[in-house]
Design brief:
- The chain contains two helices and no strands.
Length: 59
């Protein structure tokens, strides 16, 4: 019985540490991603240039 309890506690602690690591990784990824993203106030929509002029000149 003691061996089974010891095994269960080890698996349980491993599982908890695994979950904590996953959560920590997710938080750091979110922080890195949000730092790389431009803020909404400074972000400008991409300017779409019409390609009709170039197509007409090519033809």
């Amino acid at each position: 019985m003691e061996l089974i309890d010891f095994y269960y506690v080890n698996i349980h602690s491993l599982f908890i540490s695994f979950i904590e690591n996953k959560r920590h990784m997710a938080i750091t990824l979110c922080v890195i991603y949000s730092k790389n993203l431009p803020s909404p106030s400074t972000a400008t929509p991409p300017q779409i240039k019409p390609e009709k002029n170039t197509q007409l000149s090519l033809n």
